[in-house]
Fold these 3 entries.
Entry 1:
Amino acid sequence: MRRRLIQILMLCLLALFTTGCWDYTELELLDFVIGAGVDADEAGIVLVTEMAKTTGVGQETEFEPVVLSTKARTLSGAAHSLSVPAGMEAFWPHTQVFLVSEEVAREGMMAVLEHILRAWDLRSTMNLFVTKGCTAEEVLKSKPPLAAGVSQHLSSTVRLGDMRAAFVPQQVWQFSGDLAALGIAATLPVVQLVHVTGNLVPVVRGAGVFKKDRLVGWLDAEQTQIFGLLKGEEQRGLFVMDTTVEGETFPITYEFVHNVVEIKPRISDGNVRMQIKLELKLGVVAAEKANFLDRAVTNTVQEQLNRAFARRIRELLWLVQEEYNSDIIGFGQVLMRKEPKVWRSHADDWDTHLRKLAADIEVDCRIIFTGLRAEPFAVRN
Amino acid sequence: MAILVILGFALVGTVELVLSPRRPWKEVAAYLVLLAVAAAFSVMVTLNPDLPVPQPLGLLFDWLKEIWQGGL
Amino acid sequence: MKEHVPDRQGIAFVALFILGNSIIYGLAWRAGRDLWLSFLVATGLSFPLILLYSRLHSLMHGQVFSEGMESLFGKWPSRIIALLYSGYAWRLGSYVVSDVTNFIQAVSLRDTPQFATALGFVLLVLWAVKEGAETLARWSSVMIVVVGFVLVFTLLLATGQVDLDEFLPVMYDGFGPVLLGALQIMDFPFLETILVVGSIGALSRQKASYTVFLTGFVLAAFFLMLVASFSLAVLGTEKYTTSYYPIFMATARIDVAEFLTRLELVVGVIFALGGFLKMAVCLLAACKGLAHTLGFSDYRFLATPLVLSVIPGARWLVKSSMEIERSATKVFGISDVLFQVVLPICLWIVAEIRISRHSED
């Protein structure tokens, strides 16, 4: 009996420990950060956050985005002092997008990234962007036409990314991985503000090219498309190209169906050449005149596509190798993995070698479907 | 805090002694001594969190380090 | 009190002990992308020592720990050895406690004092130690299934994130880092298995020691290699080598159709289960050793003071999370080499000589 009594007492005592009072958080005191951005400031940095303000209860709960900003010398300091204007504890684990303004990115990403990587409450699957021609604050304060907030707008754009083929999404882990790895440089997708029926709307398009952790230049949407193909990113978008069929030139709209890239180093007499083999399977979405049942037509179209893509790849490579001298495609990494001995002798001076790196480009475009019709629609008198 | 720790140990000791079905004096003595040592140790750590950790093998380690210059 | 542990439970016991708290650390990070090689090398190098541990264990077959020790090494030498190992086990137990509490603080309960989380674990451990190795072995045989299933399931979900190119080029920096990595994992956790010798008690047959130790060890080594390689392939070399808890970060990346995410919690649970067993085994060994030193045949009454003292012990030995990382991934610790390699070899030689003399008599 006595034993039983003591057991019961012990259980009651143990119950005291199960409440977890130390890390107890009151939900009403939390405010969810759904997106954040960083701008430069003389004193340090400005952290801009989009937070979700909840109104109503139960079924009628609605989220309304509220933009707040704080200044501090470091990002962590700014993140911490966010509670002051918010009057609540900022809850970070649900942050979906993180914007870095052009100015900050040109100064170096470490000031931002260091905090993101070290903090326990920021997830490495957050999407990173760099803004062009506007500050992060302007982007976060803009009004997307349909989404409930800028963060939601941007993250749904990324989810649609493979439909657009105009940018290469980068999550924190990808970006920081590229910064840390040998023989590869990082990029970030670009956010710009574009006028749409009188409103400024954030649009994701193009890429910012980094060298080490500093932004050094831009790729436009067309170049980014090629960049994405060379990175082996799955692309599902449309593009229009003037195509000559039977002596007549007219635009044809193509669709990416499947893309594979293979980059291999070839060593001859100590010189490195990169062999780039790009295989594209395309569909034709609209073609005014071409009859794709005719093999000859398909062949000439494919030929023209091959040449066009090879030219665009060459242009991109020139930009990357000469203009920016930043190995965003990761030739160095390929070399290291496939030919470690050669890489060892090139590693110290890779920037110089990158300039001289020759590339053999082979493009193989195949048209594999033409919508519901093979022949063009004929209009008769 | 130190008093709380001592009280905690005393409580645990009493409860366990009361509950134990048989109590040969040798075991009880050893138990009490150990519990006292544990309590004293806890109090020392509580009062001085930077209590140095003895390194009985430290000399040997230093000597090995001198031989092995590779740095680990 | 004689213990009886069936082979299957013994294997689970050994395997879970090795997996225990080690699974979340950046094991063999010195080897970088060659860590899988390190695991193979470490397994190869540890194998003879594990064999030696099993031999020591099988020599004590059919006897309680204190009887066995006494018959092998004589009365006083055996007491000294037991005291040394008891100290080592207690120290390791304290480390495991601080591993677990630091991890919990780092990833979720930031404001909870480590004392509070430690107390929860330690009370359970106290109970487990009093119940003895038999109960723990039974518990392990159940839990290893849970741990194994969860691990395999998580790895399967994450296959989409794995980039096998991360392992290339092989041995770019030569064999040096591979060896250092191998030494790291031998020190912790492979050779800590020596403590199981003192804690587990009688198995079904004399030969069973070999089956239990070797199978358990190989199983755990294989799982650890799988988990570490997987984390590296997901995170990349740089992240793996600089994170405190790589597997935790790797599973955080799992995203099944934006529906199944935040699986890192699961790893935390595995760590807690393994950490619990490891603490219990360490303290079981510490209690048995101390009891033998003091000349008692039963160890249970010593459990409370010893187990409770690991809470201040953890705080005493480890003062920051950097220290944990250093101790978990050091290349070699002088005391570890002594207790895991030098002493066991000496003990084995002495034991073999004494046994052969006995049989001559």
Entry 2:
Amino acid sequence: MGGRMNKAKITSVGIIVVLMALILAVQSGLFGNSAASSEEMKHYTASFLDIFDTKTDIVGYATNEAEFTKQADAIKERLVYYNNLYDIYNNYEGVNNIKTINEHAGQSPVKVDAAIIELLQYSKEMYELTGGRVNVAMGSVLSIWHEYREDGCENPERAKLPELSELQAAAEHTNIEDVVIDADAHTVYLADPKMSLDVGSIAKGYACQRVMDECRAKGMDHVLLSLGGNISGIGIRYDGSSFRVAIQNPDLDSEEEYIEKVDLEDGQCVVSSGDYQRYYVVDGKVYCHIINPDTLFPADTFAAVSIITKDSGKADALSTALYNMTLEEGQAFVASQDDVEAMWVYHDGTKVYSEHFQESTVK
Amino acid sequence: MKRNDVILIIAILLITFGFVIGTVIHNHKTSTEGGLAVVTVDGEEYGRYPLNQDVTVRIDLADGEYNVLTIADGEASMSEASCRDQICVHHFHIHYAGDTIVCLPHKVIVEIVGGEADDVDAATH
């Protein structure tokens, strides 16, 4: 009799234990979704403020934070390398950079890293391609505007515009033919002593593309890099969907933060140029940081121009160039290029798309 | 099995289920309660402010420089700053997880952590 009692008790306890174990197992996700397995890829982001005088964001996937940090640090290290080479304001110990080239204008060729030679060759290509609408040899003009803009931001009530005569005198020293590149000797020489390089319209996008190419070659995948809004991806999201990029509304008073969202295919890049971030105000009128080489004054036709293409350096250069063109010139230019799409936004919010731009937009 | 055993099994099952449901509800509640605005200055965390509590925070920096963070209606914004470019002050209000406002001259970042997420990985500006 006693033996049977015991057996029943053991069965009961056994059932209870099994049920509890089952419930806890289900709750902690051991069944069905394999979320608890250690091999799962998680989504991470990292941001830096100390590269190219802008904000860098990296989006990626890894099984743990340490592994992602390793990826992000590898990307950052390469960005710092290009930052130091392409800097026009700071010197770095043991590095000849763009500033060094400017300091030796009219004096002597400067021996530089291949990454500088290639940037400047690329910049000349972009100059040719856009009929001079983006010119890295315009430092003499841009530095005048830079100074007036800085002063105008410090003391808004005393903000002034530079004299056209001063700008025209500086524009005498912007002939890109005077940027003499000797690829064999690894030197760059500015033949005009009053010339200076300003690579601000192209260097961020170009560096972004080089770093992503390097990372792709090293086998990285599912990574998105935003270097101050120059956005370039490797692959797509880990879940198989596209990386989604928002295009900021140039009207900062609007309730809508974004005017468009675009989904990027593998290798596609996007960037915007506009007058809503770096600018100053004189007598109630906004003067942005993008200077039209033809008028020597800030371009003001559009609030913003966005570009989608397969190279971040090209995207950067073309967004500046199109910002400086009329709509008709820009449309004709985009139509003549393979794989370049654009969206123009006027100050009243009107948007104009190139033929295939909306194939990327999120409906 | 005796009647008492059955009662015991049911009681334990109820308690376990109660516990499971309780933790699920708790987790759900904390994850949708709304995010935090996390302020960092030059990489160092300065403070965390829940988006569901309206507040104005003056962030005092070296040399008398400052930024003012305002949280209102579940959104964070930089309402004032002594920086030269005022990009942070002109930035739209943020509330989605991962959204940031950056004051580059002062190395101040306001980032939303937790709360509602949107579907965007990055933004042009």
Entry 3:
Amino acid sequence: MSVLVYTESWGGNFRKSTFEAVSYASETAKILGTNVVALSLEDVSDEELVKLGSYGASKVVSIPSVNKGDSQSASKIIAELSTDASVIVFSGTHTARMITPRLSVKLAAACITNVISLTESSEITIKRKSFSTKAIEIIKSNTEKTILSISPNSFGLIENQMDCLIERSDFIEKGSLIFEGQETASGKISISEAEIVVSAGRGLKGPENWGMIEELADVLGAATACSKPVSDIGWRPHSEHVGQTGKPVTADLYIAIGISGAIQHLAGVNSSKVMVAINTDPEAPFFKAADYGIIGDAFEVVPKLIQEIKKFKN
Amino acid sequence: MNILVCISSVPDTTSKINFTENNTKFDCSGIQFVINPYDEFGLTKSIMIKESIGGKVTVITVGDASVEPVIRKALAIGADDAVRVNMDPNDSFSVANEISEYIKQNSFDLIITGRESIDYNGGAVSGMISEMTNLPLVNACIGLEIEGNSAKLVREIDGGKEMITSPLPMVIGGQKGLVLENELRIPNMRGIMQARTKPLSVVEPTGNIMYTTSVSFAKPEEKAGCKFVDASNVSDLVDLLHNEAKVI
């Protein structure tokens, strides 16, 4: 018996969400009295792979020739490596959302997504986000093996140094999808993983005013986001839309500027630890959900905030 | 082009969520139900494909008779016929299993679901269907064009997008981008009238094997209340975020 953890890489590098999944797997292994085996697809260097040991992986199996977006092949190899595993842990990335359900069918294993807690005992019972974070569900696995996909940023990192043995597999498999290429915004922080998110709404009056939002995000090392109306009008790309039908946000700090706080918006962002609202309207519903608020004009408050944060950082 | 669109009946996005029966069941009282927004993007795209290259759009949903108004809305928007599997949708596996059984008995070129439903947010049904029917899968799909026997797709990846070609048939988990918000259709009177006579067949479930059991629900803890900072003292906010909240 063991806990298997899928460790996703991007261009040969792991991200925080990967180490978070390993930390989670390692804490689960303690509850079950077993060890953690990590699994890595695509080409990742030894130097990067051994980093998994810092969070509790005692072994990593690297399969360089499988494309992680090819869920047919990825789920096949993971199923083969899961014979001994009672729990298989993923971070809930876009790719994991394709692999986990296929793996669930292959292994006849429950697939529980949006996980936010450790299991209470070896009988897998878990808390997960439900109803677009308007509710928390307690759910029980009915199967021998269980797949857990954790909500990024909801667990955190726990260091637990292990000597990590690297094993390379020459498994070759290719599904029927043809991958034509990727476009990624280099240097930008992704919303789902960002510790700080700066988000703005219709209160900004027009797309030409986003310079200060980007500058604020820049000084904070934050990702930028926007409300649904703003993406619908086309002021900002759809990929920045956060809320119930956009991307979920679980940041340490969420700053909402000129966003009134409709229930659909709050549903997607309110699992952030600390929320700040800046709005001219003292009746804006966001102030009921926020931890800190400034009633004022974004065009005056935001430039001052940028200055103050610059001062603080120096 | 025969397209199957899997839809789910969910509480309207503005709904306040409550639970009954000792916090084990969702409280439906006073709730307006709608087509799951993620499914509606796929439904609209399917109708657009049918209009441009011909074919048929079938919608399928798993639920009791109370979900029929939502099915009728899908028919009013432009789906040709509908199937309801007469079972409570309590678990991703059992839902995917029923839909897959229907797919195996019929022939579809494309199966579209939403990326996830906005109620239980499992996000697993599209992937499970693809595995059960042994078809290729693209989830978080934000672009789709049909070219002969294959599909040109764009999927969202963390921090960008990826372009993919897939043979048909295949399974897609859709979201906004598949069509834009302003391309969504509001049923007109003619559509509503036609929907009343379009075929809606009810099939009984083949089995109800559940991999998970829902134990109970709770609502997130309420916030302690908002601490206001004067707009002329923005430095106080920085101070609070650093010393009190410890997030910067």
